Amino acid sequence: MENKTIKIGIAGVGTVGCGVINLLKRNNEEIFKRTGFNIKVVCISAKNKDKKRDCNVDQYNFYTDPLKMIENEDINILVELIGGESIARNLVKKSLEKNIHVVTANKALIALHGNEISDLAQKNNCDVAFEASVAGAVPIIKVIKESLNANKIEWIAGIINGTTNFILTSMLKTKKDFKDVLLEAQELGYAESDPSFDVGGIDAAHKLTILSSISFGINLNFDAIYVEGIENIELDDLNYAKELGYVIKHLAIARSNESGVELRVHPCLIPNSRLIANVDGVKNAVVVSADASGPTLYYGAGAGSYATASSVVSDIINVSKNIVYNSNGNLPLLNYQPNKLKKVNILKIEQIKSRYYLRIRVTNKPGVLADITKILGGKSISIESILQKEDLVNDANVPIVLVTHEVLEKNIIEALSSIENLDVVKGKIVKIRIEELN
Amino acid sequence: MENKTIKIGIAGVGTVGCGVINLLKRNNEEIFKRTGFNIKVVCISAKNKDKKRDCNVDQYNFYTDPLKMIENEDINILVELIGGESIARNLVKKSLEKNIHVVTANKALIALHGNEISDLAQKNNCDVAFEASVAGAVPIIKVIKESLNANKIEWIAGIINGTTNFILTSMLKTKKDFKDVLLEAQELGYAESDPSFDVGGIDAAHKLTILSSISFGINLNFDAIYVEGIENIELDDLNYAKELGYVIKHLAIARSNESGVELRVHPCLIPNSRLIANVDGVKNAVVVSADASGPTLYYGAGAGSYATASSVVSDIINVSKNIVYNSNGNLPLLNYQPNKLKKVNILKIEQIKSRYYLRIRVTNKPGVLADITKILGGKSISIESILQKEDLVNDANVPIVLVTHEVLEKNIIEALSSIENLDVVKGKIVKIRIEELN
């Protein structure tokens, strides 16, 4: 075994690619002491060889076309770090057809094309590993697939987008508005110049697609996920939440219950006594609640060159071990035997039940609260608590903050629509779901 | 593969054993959908068949002698849940000699006899899995062995004994003393009638022995661990710590640095902004800091029938997979190839560096503080902050709380010995190490 060498090719040498190259070099001896075999990068591909990089690429066979690379080179594993969908998808499919195993950090690729990739992998008895696609250094994929594998998983709730968590944490700490903090996040490199993918929730939805599939044994269902971003969260809401004993986090939630599976990404109020409520800044954390283990939580860096490389190289080592021991295919891409995937009903957001935080701006007139509560009562929505910050008698435009008991979202939507039609109500009502996570 | 059945025998049918039997039954179909093969309990052993249990044992071949069981039965995996050292050790050795793979939840067995068990396992190409031996449902063993395997691990810090964490959390919350809270913990079933194993730190030291070995690639070194319990922590210390921005936790710490490896179990002050500072009650959590991943944290139930069974059955599934795919032996017991284990210097407690919290009871006389600081200064110990709660002028017996800068423990020990000899100092000085965990 000590003479065995696994040959890998890396497609895409950006931040993560350089991390992978550097890490494999730096910890080569440590990895060998654990595994007893060698892992060797033989070739890489990138658009431009001479680009300034944080790693040295001179000793590898270089290609500008990754497809040429997998055609020409005799490699065991392709490491796909190009990102995006079109080139990566084609490259991964071609690799599997050539019986080359795949390691990828590409969440969009798996979330949107994982079903067909899974079929191809099975057909060719190839491994496809994608630990780095969700939560960076946090090994949440492997934990769900190989450590919680004795359990029925009940629900997952995760802070899996560092940008949104940084912004929400920072707003509360610095008492600044969303827009100001977003600018700061962009300056610090925590947000893209076009931040919509992160702050709008799409990135988290890609990741939730993956986590929910491997947790519940269902196909990847990106289109079925309900997605809300954090663009409309105001500093006032963060402050009111704090007063109520909650913190607002942008969560990705998947829950399996009798009527189906809930898949949703949106801001939530969570009790500040929960461990995940204390996860601040760009860090990621995922809570998995399962029938035997109970809730467990996994926390760490969600991005970064080396943090992501930690997961990519771990995948490389584990796939290499399967090659050395001739046990590839022992872990299906979607965690269930492909012919055992379940058909489930994905619930629409109107069908979920939740408690709600509501912030309503009203013109102060006698009977305002009575009008509002009457409409809520008509939809079977009962109120748990009311927060009135300003004096209703002396202020012409005041916020009323309500917390409701649990109710069907459909009822809330209908009630809010009626309340917004009241003359005394100004603008759109802020509605944030409350998750107890217990 | 779908016709393949893995046969297991369970030795010891107490709380965890019943959890394993019930969980395998309850989630049998879910596990099959993931793996594609069957796992079947064929035999069990226990002292008494007719004991009242939370599981039905009638359908299994029953033995009172586990050695007879492994002689008579044709099983693939022995699940050792007897606990303790002598019978379990003999049984596990005999099993490996008969090429039966082993799953165990027995921390004492691995911590104290894991080196010889590792040799035997390698010799017979058998798997030995022990996820449940540390931190119950939290898959910290597999994470270190298979998810952080691209990293050099720098340090680990864990709350890995639920009893001590429950007591410390409860003291601070209820403002009661150690002894009162210990009684409550015993009534709740969170502490044994003889609690010394838990509150004295031995249980945590067993677990740290295991975690440090698989993290650093060293032999199991239980005898080299420095151990302090929480018996001397007073409510005053918890309150002063809080005032300083810290919380006191009983931590198991392993750290690798240039001069060697630190292995120690003792109470610590940790900044209350750290996520692990918010881990309360009987829960467990481990932070692993590694060169690529950075710090990651793993949290969940550290004990309980089903929580522990979650890890035991996960081990059973993963070892079964190795049997089905003929890939046993792919993961050495101690995580490094046996011939690649490192010889390292385990540091004595005098050789570590730390910041310290000191609580000194003094009779109030002019110049007391000057006497104390002079002795500290003579040992190169500089003071970061002083907390004086009561009025030195009006009280004859007052506490002085000091926080030092980082210094060699040897110097602190010598300085405290001199200070305790001062006439004005009453009783033993309370010394608690401060860990920043960053």
Helix content of chain A: 25-40%
Largest interface: A-B, 67 and 67 residues
Low-confidence stretches of chain A: none
Which architecture of the largest domain in chain A would the CATH scheme give at its second level?
2-Layer Sandwich
Radius of gyration of chain A: 24 Å
| Helix and strand composition category of chain A | alpha/beta
Question: Would you report the number of β strands of chain A?
Answer: 17
The largest β sheet of chain A comes out as:
11 strands, mixed
What's the N-to-C terminus distance of chain A?
47 Å
The rough form of chain A would be described as elongated
Instruction: Kindly report the average pLDDT value of chain A.
Output: 96
Proportion of residues in extended strands of chain A: 25-35%
* Oligomeric organization of the protein chains: homodimer
Q: What is the name of the CATH superfamily of the largest domain in chain A?
A: Dihydrodipicolinate Reductase, domain 2
Task: Summarize the entry for a quick read.
2 copies of one chain form a homodimer. The relative contact order of chain A is 0.13.
Describe this structure in words.
The structure is a homodimer of 438-residue chains. Chain A has 438 residues and is an alpha/beta fold. Chain A has three domains: 5-136 and 305-333, NAD(P)-binding Rossmann-like Domain (Rossmann fold, 3-Layer(aba) Sandwich), CATH 3.40.50; 140-301, Dihydrodipicolinate Reductase, domain 2 (2-Layer Sandwich); 350-434, Alpha-Beta Plaits (2-Layer Sandwich), CATH 3.30.70. Chain A is 36% helix and 26% strand. Chain A contains 14 helices and 17 strands. In chain A, the strands form two sheets. In chain A, strands 7, 8, 9, 10, 11, 12, 13, 14, 15, 16 and 17 form an eleven-stranded mixed β-sheet that branches. Chain A has a six-stranded parallel β-sheet with strand order 3-2-1-4-5-6, with helices on both faces. In chain A, helix 7 packs across helix 8 (178-187) and helix 13 packs antiparallel against helix 14. The longest helix of chain A has 20 residues, at 305-324. Chains A and B meet through helix 1, helix 2, helix 6, strand 12 and helix 12 of A and helix 1, helix 2, helix 6, strand 12 and helix 12 of B. Strand 12 of chain A pairs antiparallel with strand 12 (294-301) of chain B, so a sheet runs across the interface.
